[in-house]
Design brief:
Layout (H helix, E strand, L loop, with lengths): L9 E3 L6 E2 L1 H8 L3 E7 L4 H18 L10 E7 L4 H9 L6 E2 L6 H8 L7 E5 L5 E3 L3 H7 L3 H8 L10 H42 L1
Parallel strand pairs: 3-4, 4-5
Antiparallel strand pairs: 1-2, 1-5, 3-6, 6-7
């Protein structure tokens, strides 16, 4: 994946707009499913979709929803008219997002490479840069975070620790009740053994 960004820089969506070096980029993108989000804060369709994408991303990466962040990274490729507009939009989005710097010609390269003609568009890529989904906007709208599992399998990323919030709730309930069930089983087993011992002793006495 890092090969796609060789010689390029990406902005980290943090307070100081830190720039990721090529070495850091390799670490950030390695063994991850990459989403390229082509959008604009001024586009009506993007304004409708962006909150869905934000929630989608958070449910897969934020510790409030998952036990462990998914192997997922998102790069915002802006069609905003000014740098201020891009910055204002990114301030409303997750801090884990990355972005192509405003005015960078690399944005046009990406649009041409992945045949993006209108926004919003979300291109889903394997770690080696191969396309999994040309535009996943409708899939994200329709399926939500569950579609990541399909991408994960297509990208051959096996992460047994991946849990959606609902799965984590089930796991938590099981982890709380399992010790109780095990304790009850042990107590019942001891009672049964005690009864068997009593019967055995009674049999010996009668003989």
């Amino acid at each position: 994946m890092a090969a796609l960004f060789t010689g390029k820089i990406l902005m980290a969506n943090r307070e100081r707009d830190e720039v990721e070096t090529e070495r850091e980029l390799g670490q950030v993108l390695e063994n991850k499913v990459l989403l390229l989000y082509f959008g604009s804060g001024q586009c009506r369709r993007c304004r409708q979709f962006s909150p869905l994408l934000k929630d989608f991303f958070l449910r897969l990466t934020d510790e409030f929803y998952v036990e462990r962040a998914s192997q997922l990274v998102l790069v915002y490729v802006s069609r905003d008219e000014t740098e201020e507009q891009q910055s204002a939009f990114l301030r409303t989005m997750p801090k884990r997002w990355l972005a192509v710097p405003f005015g960078d010609a690399f944005k046009r390269e990406l649009e041409l490479r992945f045949a993006v003609s209108e926004v919003p568009a979300v291109v889903v890529l394997k770690p080696n840069g191969e396309v999994i989904v040309g535009n996943a906007v409708e899939e994200i709208r329709r399926v939500g975070p569950a579609c990541f599992r399909n991408w994960q399998e297509a990208a051959e990323l096996v992460d047994r620790n991946f849990l959606l919030a609902e799965d984590f709730d089930d796991w938590t309930r099981r982890s709380i009740t399992d010790p109780i069930r095990r304790l009850k089983y042990k107590l019942d087993k001891k009672k049964t053994e005690a009864k068997n011992m009593e019967k055995k002793e009674e049999g010996e006495e009668s003989s």
